[in-house]
Every structure is written in structure tokens, then in C-alpha cells.
């Protein structure tokens, strides 16, 4: 597989800046106007893309009241799946407006489809990429259907064991995907930082030889920034206009100023990684003159012996290197040398 992919012309991989995806999810709170404002906020914050989730309540679950269809624990404890998804879903009739507005402001937009009808809708809108959600990583037929679009495919790995991840990637390849990215993910909302196990990112890259990243559900930007230092090429974060506005995902979503900070910090982190270097950085060159070297610190007459009293290692660096001090001491001066002169080899009888 390729260790780089391209979404809407933007190269993504180890040799490129981190690709930041702002996940809208249900943070539109059922208002198209708010959804459009979220696109504007993501653009202004510097995100590379906004991702939607394309489903209806009846395409992701069924309207049932049994215990199997109730949420236990977490943010949504006690809610019925159908009611939760009915509240959180992005109406299909909004999609065209959202895609058009994103194009107008120069922002990439794509989505996570949850069934074949969602894929068809997104195909009609020329979605430039697709995402497989963590809970759908076990739906290999769905993965193959999405892969058949030929567009880049991003797979989240929340809750998955290694065999499930490997099967999902193989299904994507079998379905025709040639550009695949895999995001390490902990599907807990919010995720405790100590459970993120970010070393998994580099291990995924090594085992799968694909573009890797992090779908981050922690409450801050720290974990995402660290992840870039550990090899993440993609960062996905939920975002909202204001957590105080409420909504199904608002509690673990970034506000615009935090998203802006995330974009800034992950790009700084990426630029700071660089490559192994054992020579002065360009910004250090001017400082070389202030390193230590050997200087005459008391007047020395021709033929006089150099001693610790008249030769020392001091700043700046225009004299012989300090490593030669032992070789200099005890030797005689070829000429008169004034206090403050940088010691040079020609001043030493017999040289070094």
C-alpha cells in the first residue's frame, strides 16, 4: 500500500503536514444554519476538512424498546438508540447545501456513510473521500461497498482487536480501495488520556504500511499534538460552536478557538520532528562564535612558556579548540603575544 493518500488534491502522509478533520457529527443541533456556521468556523480555524455522518435513524438501527436498544452508561445513559440517532443525524436534504457551501468557502467536506443508500447520496455529491466509523469496522460488506467507490477510505479502529482491523483493511483492498488510512481510536466519549495508548499509531503503520492517524475523543488538544510526534498523519476531532449550547456530542467537542490551537500545535509538532541531525541548525550558526577556545590571558614574551596562568579556555571561539590545552601548556611562544589574543598554532614553538 501507499504511505500517502490524496483527498481533494491535498497530499496526506509522513512527508506532509498533518491533515486535520473537524468532525461535525450531531453538533448542528438540528439547525441547518448552525451546520453552515460550523463549516465557516472550521475554515477560519484552519482545519483541512469537515466530516459529516450520513445516516437516518432507521438505516443505523430500528425503532425498538427492548433492552438491546438502550444505551447503558456514559453521556447517553438511558437513551434509546433510535431516539439518539434521530436527534443526532444530519438530514439528507441538508447535504447538498453543506457540500455547496464548503465548496464556496474552499473547505473539503466528506462523510461517514452507514448503509448503501448513504453511499449513493454521497456519490451523487462527488464526495472526495469516505470514512468508516469504529462501530462499523466489523461490517465488511459495507467496507467493500465503500471501497468500490474508488475514493480514499479512512477507517477508525475504536474497540477493535487486531484481527478485526486486519480484516477491515483486507476488505477495503478487496473492494478496490487503493488509498487507505487507518486511525487509532478509543471509542469512549470522552476518552481518558491514560487509555489512549498512542504507541499503537506507529505499530499500525509498521504492520499495515498505510497512512495512520488518530481519531481523538479526549477533552483537550494535548493528546493529538503528542500523536503527531508519534507518527500520526491525520487528526480527527469533534468540534462545536460552543459546548454551552449543548447537543449530543458537545461535551467532548472542541470550540473554534481550541480547534485553531489544535491546527497550530499539530503543525508545529510535525515541523519539530525533522530528521536526525548532528550539525548546527541554521539558527545556531551565529552562536558558534560564542563557544569556548584558547586565549592568551596575560602578556607572553617570545620564548616564554605557556602556563595555566597565561592561557585559558574562555569565550569566544576564535582561538584553538580547548581540547588542545594540555598540548599547549609547557611549550614556548614564537613571538610576543598580547593579552586577549586568540591562540593560534603559529604562536607555538614546534606547533601542536
From TrEMBL:
<dbReference type="GO" id="GO:0016051">
    <property type="term" value="P:carbohydrate biosynthetic process"/>
</dbReference>
<dbReference type="GO" id="GO:0047444">
    <property type="term" value="F:N-acylneuraminate-9-phosphate synthase activity"/>
</dbReference>
<dbReference type="InterPro" id="IPR013132">
    <property type="entry name" value="PseI/NeuA/B-like_N"/>
</dbReference>
<dbReference type="InterPro" id="IPR057736">
    <property type="entry name" value="SAF_PseI/NeuA/NeuB"/>
</dbReference>
<dbReference type="Pfam" id="PF03102">
    <property type="entry name" value="NeuB"/>
</dbReference>
<dbReference type="InterPro" id="IPR013785">
    <property type="entry name" value="Aldolase_TIM"/>
</dbReference>
<dbReference type="InterPro" id="IPR020030">
    <property type="entry name" value="Pseudaminic_synth_PseI"/>
</dbReference>
<protein>
    <submittedName>
        <fullName>N-acetylneuraminate synthase</fullName>
        <ecNumber>2.5.1.56</ecNumber>
    </submittedName>
</protein>
<dbReference type="InterPro" id="IPR036732">
    <property type="entry name" value="AFP_Neu5c_C_sf"/>
</dbReference>
<dbReference type="InterPro" id="IPR006190">
    <property type="entry name" value="SAF_AFP_Neu5Ac"/>
</dbReference>
<dbReference type="Pfam" id="PF08666">
    <property type="entry name" value="SAF"/>
</dbReference>
<feature type="domain" description="AFP-like">
    <location>
        <begin position="293"/>
        <end position="351"/>
    </location>
</feature>
<dbReference type="InterPro" id="IPR051690">
    <property type="entry name" value="PseI-like"/>
</dbReference>
<dbReference type="InterPro" id="IPR013974">
    <property type="entry name" value="SAF"/>
</dbReference>
<keyword id="KW-0808">Transferase</keyword>
<dbReference type="GO" id="GO:0050462">
    <property type="term" value="F:N-acetylneuraminate synthase activity"/>
</dbReference>
